């Protein structure tokens, strides 16, 4: 088992593609900048497995990118790597992951339990469904460095942990970043779009209410001609209805699992779209 570094990114991209996942150089670079990636290599030096952990603070960490080449499955590689991720943080840290159907039994054996779900939505043909934003209650503007402290506070309340380091890298990676301000000039929501090799990912989306969240989606998705993806936490039913009216369709509902706790850190229900499944 190795701790992988940025020289291993091409091998990780190839491993990801072998299972139909779409990690690219930018995404893996962000993961390595804020987290740890472990893996195995075969005798030829090819990467045959991976797992990553992203620690946010001493409260929360997220595991993802757990992949084993199909020719090497059944040898306990995924278990060894996931355990290494677990061992890299303290027993007091809540560890979360979003499980695939295939991975869920392994995670249960390692002590993870399901606490909620996310809803994966895709759209091949986004159709704007305009909400009532004509009341001028909010304005949406490009995200700049001057907004970061307010953005970070919103995000911490939404996630239950300080993700400052991750957010700085994610904002640099973003195709577009926006904030929504109310009439007092306070930041009441933010959103990023990330251009991947297959989809434009909408997330994170954090907003004080449904109207602000839809305003952000309309701005980030407007005029985009390709495929869109957003992963929505459980409990945002009206937002999900809005997405379906815009041409999104749900393709899966994977479980969110945690270890070292019986629940996620307290959240204030303002998270409308996660950054990506690996980041929780």
From TrEMBL:
One of its GO terms (molecular function) is acyltransferase activity, transferring groups other than amino-acyl groups. The keyword Transferase applies. PROSITE patterns: GNAT. Keywords: Transferase. The keyword Transferase applies. InterPro entries: Acyl/Acetyltrans_Enzymes, Acyl_CoA_acyltransferase, GNAT_dom, YitH/HolE_GNAT. Pfam families: Acetyltransf_10, Acetyltransf_18. Residues 1-132 form the N-acetyltransferase domain. This is Acetyltransferase.
